[in-house]
Amino acid sequence: MSHWNPRFEEMPAPELDRLQYRLLKTLAYRLYAFSPFYHARMRESGVHPDDIRSLEDVQKLPFMFKGDLRDNYPDRLFTVPHEELVRYHVSSGTTGKPTVVGYTEKDIELWTESLARALTSIGLTRGDVIQVSYGYGLFTGGLGLHYGAERIGATVLPTSVGNTERQIELMQDLGATAICCTPSYLLHIGEVAERMGIHLGRDTSLRAGILGAEPWTEEMRRHVQDWLGIRAYDIYGTSELSGPMFTECADQRGVHIWRDLALVEVIDPETGESLAPGERGELVLTMLQKEALPICRYRIGDVSSVKDGECSCGRAHPRIERITGRVDDMLIIRGINVFPSQIEHVLLGLSEVGEHFQIEVDRKGALDDMLVRVEVRKEAFSDKIADLMAIQRRVADRLKSVLNVAVRVELVEPGSLPRFEGKAKRVIDKRVL
Amino acid sequence: MTPDEFIIRQISVFSENRPGRLAAIAHALEEERVNIFAFSIAEASGFGVVRALVDKPEKAHARLTEDGFNVAFTDVIAVRMRDEPGGLYEVASMLGDTGINIEYSYAYSGPAGAVLILRVDRPAEAIERILSAGKELLSAAAFR
Ligand SMILES: [Zn+2]
């Protein structure tokens, strides 16, 4: 089976436009009527639900921010009575209060529906054994995929996280065909399996990895696929949206966002203006049918772009590119938006230097000056200065071609750059603006 | 003596140009009771390479690696120089004539007089050439 819900997945674009417009309009009225918070915000920006007369009018609606959820802890943004809630999930914030998400029965239903479509689009179906190695509990990863996998009739192996050797044993003995986990955990599983004399691609039935909940790159995908011999798919969704709920299809070129469930925009984080497909900026999502915790023009803070053109699978639902970083980390260097994640991406593609880096920005005269410090790898160390300078030049050239801005590169000793657990702080901005 | 005996293991250490790095290297070697015979620093913008001939290269390598330095062994040769002008030129042009490339060189003065350390692209040939020209090479044993 290639489509879980052909009615929506095969719906042509003009029909999706009409459907989405209707859902958006309904949402605007519902928020105006039932969300004191969003009502006030609409009043402040002088917009009334009657002003929404086309799909493009979504741009008239005010934004919601992560801080709004924290400021209204725990449940002041909910628009349904408590007895309507069937579940809570809580995401721990790196700073301040956590975010609490409540779910009605329909919220859980649509989250499950979204994943049922997504898993089916990858090629998973009844008879597959899906190992869910995301954490179960307050975190949304485990339970979300659990429900989605059960919905399509697959067999769920709810291993959650930890006890890797046991995970590998069960994977082998019970014939898991897909695993859902973070990309770094899959790499860890691969290493542990290798030590146990097991190659995931050859010695197990595994053929797909559904990877997300942390940043990863195209290089990592290639590495996972070549090394483990399985196909790796990106999954996206934060707890505010419900949880991880959108994935790539079998084509593996961007995560499909179901238009009947969500409206995706990409904006310039500085001006708030909408960007065209292909242009990279801040992801803004509107959940069209979410009940307990409505999400309207929510600025997630993730950097992405909407892919241009149609997907080979034929679905007229837009695809977003893999998240390439956080908006908070964006730097403006001589007027050009630079994301540290782009630098990481370049470094991962260069064998002479490590993936750790540090950025120092300063102002030389009227111009911004950007310095990137990278560690020379042991294998690349030559005691000839000319060789080292060639490495320095190669890194600078690659960075310039990707960032569109000239960068100075400094080679530093291996292990000398700070390592981070959790959120990395890689930028030192010395500019006095 | 076979040509191999004239190949000397130099340790090369990648170092950032910031205060204290050199001292850290020297201090680590001192703690390991490693004697330094010859020493040179090559610098570029922001970084440098410290090159040293020591009596216990393995020990030095192990300790510096443990301390987090990027360390490599490099094969070099050591020519004893007569203390007279033109000595360096003589060696360089001799090697150049046979197409052997000197990648870098540095000199030091030890108890046995002036010595020129060379890294060349074809050490075995260079050794043969230098010896047959009647020049004196120091053997690796001289640095233990
Ligand atoms: Zn597709």
Characterize the structure shown:
The complex is a heterodimer of chains A (433) and B (144). By secondary structure, chain A is of the alpha/beta class. Chain A is built from 12 helices and 21 strands. Chain A has 2 domains: 1-327, 3-Layer(aba) Sandwich (Rossmann fold); 331-429, 2-Layer Sandwich (GMP Synthetase, Chain A, domain 3). Helix content of chain A is 32%, strand content 23%. In chain A, the strands form 6 sheets. Chain A has a 6-stranded mixed beta sheet with strand order 5-4-6-7-8-9, with helices on both faces. In chain A, strands 1, 11, 12, 13 and 15 form a 5-stranded mixed beta sheet that branches. In chain A, strands 20-19-18-21 form a 4-stranded mixed beta sheet. With 144 residues, chain B is α+β, with helices and mostly antiparallel strands. Helices cover 29% and strands 38% of the residues of chain B. In chain B, strands 1, 2, 3, 4, 5, 6 and 7 form a 7-stranded antiparallel beta sheet that branches. The longest helix of chain B is centred in the N-terminal third of the chain and has 11 residues, at 21-31. Chain B is globular. In chain B, 31% of the residues are buried. The mean pLDDT of chain B is 88. Classes of the chains: A alpha/beta (433), B alpha+beta (144). The A-B interface holds A 376, 378, 381-385, 388-389, 392, 410-416 and B 10, 12, 14-16, 21, 42-47, 49, 51, 68-72, 74, 103-104, 119. Zinc ion is lined by residues 249, 251, 256, 311, 313, 315 of chain A.
